[in-house]
Amino acid sequence: MPTYNKLVRDKIPEILEKNNLAYRLKHLDKDQFHTAIQEKFQEEWTEYQQAVNNEEAVEELADLLEVIFAMTEIHGRTKEELLAVRQRKFIDRGGFYQKCYLLEVEDK
C-alpha cells in the first residue's frame, strides 16, 4: 500500500471506497491542519510551476485557490470576505494586468 501522508480533498475517501480501495486516514486537529494546509499550498504551487501547458496550469491554479479558501477559514474569515478584500485592494491599487515592474523610487 503506497504511503501519501498528505492532506487530501474531502471527497477522496468516498472516491476510494467507490473504487474498492483500502485506505487509512486520520482527522487533523487545528494545529495539524494549519501545518498540513501550508504543505499543501507548497505542493500545489510546485505543481503549478511544473505545469507544461495552459490547461494544467489552470487546474493547478484552481487547486491553489481551494487551498487559499481553506487557509482563509484558519484566520476566521470566509471566502466571500477574502474576495471582498481582494476587490477592495483591486479598486484601491489595481491588479497586475498592465505588467508594471517598478525599478526604483526617489527618496524624500
Automatic annotation (TrEMBL):
CDD domains: NTP-PPase_COG4997
TM region positions: none
MF term (GO), any: hydrolase activity
InterPro entries registered for this protein in UniProt: MSMEG_1276-like_NTP-PPase_dom, PRib-ATP_PPHydrolase-like
Domain of life of the organism encoding this protein: Bacteria
Cited Pfam families: PRA-PH (PF01503)
Swiss-Prot/TrEMBL keywords: Hydrolase
Name of the protein this chain belongs to: Phosphoribosyl-ATP pyrophosphohydrolase
Protein source organism: Gracilibacillus salitolerans
